User: Fold Shikimate dehydrogenase (NADP(+)) from Pistricoccus aurantiacus.
Amino acid sequence: MTDHYCVFGHPVNHSKSPMIHAAFAEQTGEDLEYSAIEAPLEDFAGAWKRFVAQGGKGANVTVPFKEDAFRLCDSLSDRARRAKAVNTLILETDGPTQNGRIRGDNTDGLGLTRDLAHHRVTVEGARILVLGAGGAVRGVLEPLLQARPKALFIANRTPEKAVQLAEDFRDLGEIAGGGYAEVEGRFDLVINGTSASLGGTLPPLAETVFAPGATAYDMLYGAEPTVFLRWAARQGARPLDGLGMLVEQAAVSFQLWRGKRPDTQVVRERLRQLLDEG
Ligand SMILES: NC(=O)c1ccc[n+]([C@@H]2O[C@H](COP(=O)([O-])OP(=O)(O)OC[C@H]3O[C@@H](n4cnc5c(N)ncnc54)[C@H](OP(=O)(O)O)[C@@H]3O)[C@@H](O)[C@H]2O)c1
Assistant:
């Protein structure tokens, strides 16, 4: 019998997740359908309930519902609990005690670290600057710190949020936070986790922020490099966008649902090709 999965978002018609999961299913021989559902802004829980009533087995969750999804869960992975955000819902149906319980996970961070590994970007021992202190950044801090960077600084437009985030993750490694004016020195890896690129805005950074051989990573992706990546390339940094992160986080979700790890390389290439074709 065909199992049903979906991505919930608002808006969601731009989502590449149905295409990614269809490719994973075909590749692994899993019998599943994956759709995109625009949930009403004020009733995410209702949308999930209706989906389950129609046979839904699990879902991805994107903007703006990751915190609603977090509140809906009966149990959480450690990384989702720390992130206070869930991007993967799993309906647990095995065993009499689990029937219908909702488990939440957050695969964004592993998606990022797998993508960095794919591009051979070394996190261990690196000086990392993370821009932004929203849901996406909260989701990636644990796996980044577990990869043991030398130091990690979070810079945010609203400095208090960065300070609080650093406080929340302090037990995992050398981490501090503040405003852009407090960014000091050069970094081996600068990750843009703000939504500034969406509006074509550049976070206020000094041109000297990149160490020699540094990588600039924008979680956003598109047919054209973002304004941040274009600027970073002009400063000599290696630009990488978030397309690989998207595919890798999807692969982790797929494995959580189906127990099979798909090959991401072919899907990355296909998606890039589709983006280039417009
Ligand atoms: N590739 C992937 O798989 C993936 C996964 C998740 C997210 N993302 C991307 O990551 C980005 C952030 O998502 P999110 O869910 O974390 O959003 P969010 O929770 O709304 O957080 C937005 C962050 O961006 C900052 N910001 C917004 N406009 C800014 C500007 N003009 N200048 C400087 N900072 C600005 C905000 O600062 P304040 O706190 O001061 O408001 C906040 O820190 C989005 O572009 C999203 O598409 C990609």
